[in-house]
Amino acid sequence: MSEYTDNLRKSMLELGNSNDYIELCINYARKLEKSHVPIIFDKIHFLVLTELKSSQLNDFLNNRAGYYREFELIINNRKREIHAPNNILKELQKWIQLYILKPLRVSDWATAYIPGTSIIKNAAIHIGQECVVNLDLKNFFNSISAVKVHRVFRVAGYTKELATLFTKICTVNNCLPQGAPTSPYLSNLVCIKLDQELADFCQSLGIRFTRYADDMTFSGGKEIVKVLPQIYKIISKQGFLINNDKTKILNCGQRQEVTGLVVNDKVSVKKEFIRKLSQEIHFCLRFGVSNHILRTGIRKSNYKDHLFGRAYFINMVDKSLGDDLLKKLQSIDWEY
């Protein structure tokens, strides 16, 4: 028995609770301890822990959509609908992320949104394979329903009442909002069963598998292509759809890419990505930043950050080349 449950039993005995009720509460607390999440008995207990007023929570529950700001962003040539929570809701979601979600373990095949992982480590698993297949899960966050999120909190051990409350805090329009701090990690937790089923299937055939958010990669021999229908079936069974326009089958004679990195014989950045950055640095040094922007019609207000961001990305993969590019960027007269 833990110190917490020992103290809980003593307190409840002093209050005159029945032995049956005490055992019920102790067993509930033990279940949550096993999941390494906070022991929370009801909504009032949750309000005490989060220092949130009951009126604030009720206002949110009666107007959940009003606590989000909706806008669109273009990311990697894709239009994304963002639901950004206001400060009150964001702080509440951060609390759930830190204390409830973060202690829960995700699958070994999930490589996004987890400390210590990166697109580089994700790509490295698929180096030097005969065939690489990339699949994209369509409308990933929108495909994760409130029902699936509710199940995450129930599996962690929480009551139906609390699981429902946490689900309402973490979802909007019956799905995960893109823009909430809880959505990325929740997506990994929801996908545990999907990852496990795909991993079991792939391992039986000697196929390597990873999932970086909505990007799934399978690598190995050419037999992967033959078993794609079975892979699609597993994905469909878990409630996800494949974006067929983004499916890529890459053989060893082609440039094989995984999450934007080349993996034919080592993890490397695409040559045209490096060439384009080197060219922009050259023109900035030769003509000056303002003249270069005027000549080319560049409309990025954060142009300096944009170039440095690209150089830091290269630096993560190839430190020597990245250091050289960063040194050149630092030598530019940025005029601001």
Automatic annotation (TrEMBL):
The keyword S-adenosyl-L-methionine does not apply. It catalyses: DNA(n) + a 2'-deoxyribonucleoside 5'-triphosphate = DNA(n+1) + diphosphate. The keyword Metal-binding applies. Keywords: Antiviral defense, Magnesium, Metal-binding, Nucleotidyltransferase, RNA-directed DNA polymerase, Transferase. It holds the Pfam family RVT_1. PROSITE patterns: RT_POL. InterPro entries: DNA/RNA_pol_sf, GrpII_Intron_Splice-Mob/Def, Reverse_transcriptase_msDNA, RT_dom. One of its GO terms (molecular function) is metal ion binding. GO terms for biological process: defense response to virus. Its EC number is 2.7.7.49. PANTHER family: NUCLEAR INTRON MATURASE 1, MITOCHONDRIAL-RELATED (PTHR34047), RNA-DIRECTED DNA POLYMERASE (PTHR34047:SF7). This is RNA-directed DNA polymerase.
